[in-house]
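User: These chains co-purify. Model them together.
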Amino acid sequence: MNRQVELKNHQREMYYFQLRLVISIGLVLVLLAILLARFTYLQVVRHDYYQTLAESNRISVVPIVPNRGLILGRNGAVLAHNYSGYTLEITPNKTTDLEATINELSTLVEITPKDRKRFKKLLAERRNFETLVIRNRLSDEEVARFAAQQYRFPGVEIKARLFREYPYGEITAHLLGYVGRINQSDVAQLEENDLAANYRGSDYIGKTGLEQSYESVLHGTTGVEQVEVDSVGRAIRRLSRTPPVSGNTLVLSIDAKLQEIAFQSFGNYRGALVAIDPNNGEVLAFVSKPGYDPSLFVDGIDTQSWDELNNSPDTPLNNRALRGQYPPGSTIKPFMALAGLHYGERAPGQTINDPGYFTLPGSSHQYRDWKKDGHGSVDMFKSIVVSCDTYYYGLATDLGIDRISNYLSRFGFGKKTGIDLEGETSGLLPSQAWKMRRYQQQWYVGDTVSVGIGQGYNLVTPLQLAVATALLANNGKGFRPHLVKEVRSSLNNESHLMTDNPEFDLRIEPAHLDLVRKAMVAVTQPGGTAVRAAAGASYHIAGKTGTAQVIGIKQGEKYIEDQVLERHRDHAWFMAFAPAEQPRIALVVLVENGGHGSSTAAPIARKVLDYYLLGKVPQPLQTIAGEEDEEHD
Amino acid sequence: MTRRQLWLRFIAHLDRPLLLGICLLLLVSLLVLYSADNTDWGLPLSQMLNIAVALTCMWLVANLPLHYLMRTAVPVYLLGMALLISVALFGEISHGARRWLDLGVTTLQPSELMKIGVPLMMAWYFEKHEATLTLKNYFIAALLLLMPVALIMRQPDLGTAILISASGFYVLFLAGLSWRVMGGLLVAVLVSAPLTWSMLHDYQRLRILMLLDPSQDALGKGYHTIQATIAVGSGGLLGKGYLKGTQAHLDFLPERTTDFIFAVYSEEFGLIGNLILLSLYFFVIARGFIITANASTYFTRLMAGSITLTFATYAFVNMGMVSGILPVVGVPLPLVSYGGTSMLTLLLGFGMLMSIETHKKLIKT
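Assistant: Joint model of the two components:
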């Protein structure tokens, strides 16, 4: 290439650049002219056409919210349904003076301070062209009164909406959970899962419980309606309609009557009860007491009610059955006995002598039996029947913590059961490695001793213990527990059964199992710890009582129930299955601060068993308070 | 130093005509946002914050002497490329497109950085080889453009890819790419159009198809265009009046605070309003061209010209798509649409224009 050409010619270069600049300016002018021409065409030539479209003939796409699916009990009782009701709603930016409007409205329909508070909250959260609810559930009379005066209230209207209702209220609160208004974080969640379109127009979403875990099944598919609206947004006529598809119906394995009896049987006590059909993992009753009124949350809870629920010492919002973690107490003993047999540390007939306490070799520390003078000569059968602590102190020491941990985990302790509810806790099954991780300390033999009677580091949830009990009842064959029995399609009423549970078999030696089950039956016979609660039953109950200490008792001190603050009293456990020979139900009762398992927990279990097996309804339902005094001795 | 001297030094590097034009457009932005957000102060206030941040950055860049500006070209470009590649590898997916990089604290859209980075790099490259420009240099410059564009197309972000292609093309054009080559390119584009069509995503094809006949898909993709056209057309000569646009206020206009904000403006202020807005844009563009013509070096000429032309392209593409003569590609109305990132990118560009204008005397002496 010629060097002359490569050298730059500054002036020529500038000339070319400026030429290109002029071309650019020309181009920009042409583009602007095109835009101007287009605007003129739209805004002058075709103005009338678009004016008509805008003013009188517009198409609005309106979502049609599907009906939320019903929730039914196993025998058809309605646990959650929708009812249509009227609401009074205000569109803030169509109203001139909000405060005055609300005051004026309150002369026609009752508007409580709670309604005002909730409205203020909505006003802060929502955009002011949305309609906001000021009053829910108007009576027919109120609707009529407002309708006559509506002309005075621009921007205020009555709407028909569907409300979620839970006929069983607090009895099923922890089981069903509740729906609540869709909030910012729900919206973000929906957008992330690409579901926002299906929730256009929806006000509610499942917040906790089954309403939450089966949200996708219950919600349904939103329909679309194309309507012509006039310039103030009133619908003139419908152009097309894609109907919504209602949510599917959930049929639970819960027996509604059983659930009610179980809940009422607690009387004024706090606690939890889980009953399972051991033959298929269906949960028959799922109680956490105290409950709460779920309808408070449906309309948006006011701060006062929220504070009351949230700050109550009874923690009514805590789902004890699912999330409560308690020391298992003596209910762990049947499982410990199986572990002893499994690893060959104990033979069935092998006896120990119980002087009323246990000491580790080379130590003077006394681990006391609940019975001061001891049970004398004790074999495995008797150890369960009389709930001998000394027997299990020794057994646990001989097994060692890691073998205990390994064996108990087969029954599901220390891990989630996988039930179809969110928020389950996993309890705690300690091991050497766990203690090192948690406390950076090595495991001491002394730690193992109290694990043997369920009083060490170990914690279980009532649900976990119920699942383990069902495993004993069904000879080591187990299922993942589930609350939903079938999903009934809203389209064709076809049922989809929830039977895809993984079945598993622990393969427990039948002779071992037979011994433990026989001992558990003897627990409810004369000489056993739960004889009174089982008195007069026409079927055999296999059971085990348990007591979980809430506060520690010093060496040499005695625990006297009447002298202890109520909140510091022991938690009472009772686990059972019946009929013992061919179990149809396995259950666990926990009574917080209930004292002994035999006096408070076992009678509750008896009522539930009597209803489930014999159809006997306790008369009157609320009777526990009377019996309680009698049993205190 | 007196207070007056301090003030003079503070505004020394701000180009007053350009600043005036920008501020008038920003004022329009706040007014229309208030209306588009249903007479709520939320968005206008947050837009004010965007503006404050962007104006500060503009001032900083305007005070940056030219050789610093040039020195940033290579690092900015390399950083942009690195980010684009990491987006392709580990970017956040939102709305089916992988555009965002999650930095823990904030998310970053690297393609936005390249709106400045690509022309900067190309102008730097041409300046470096100014004395000996051959066809090979144009080819290399084109490669510098196509690599990031290809990555952005893959995300897929058609709007940004088109804008960056345009800004790069303007550099090539102003650097004197011969008409013959441009003619050849045009033929190549026409020939490769069917190939490009096959590479486009379904939603992009839909948007182009729908442009030909928006009524085909009135409830889906065509809805944006139809409602926006109705808004513009019903505005008429004088408009429906501020805050009185029914299309916008009855919730018919989608994305009315961002890409479709022009429809709100046009409905309320009519053809007269549009004329005023076009004049404002032309005023800013014309000032940009004057700065370009006065620029003292090859680098600054190319840079100033590209920034100005890209700004014009933004405005044209957005108003064209809202009024239904261009496909909906997702380009905001410059300086008016709500959004912090595009505001920052635009004002950084104007900061460079101001730096080019106010530092040139120093270089000449």
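Residues 10-45 of chain A form the longest helix (36 residues).
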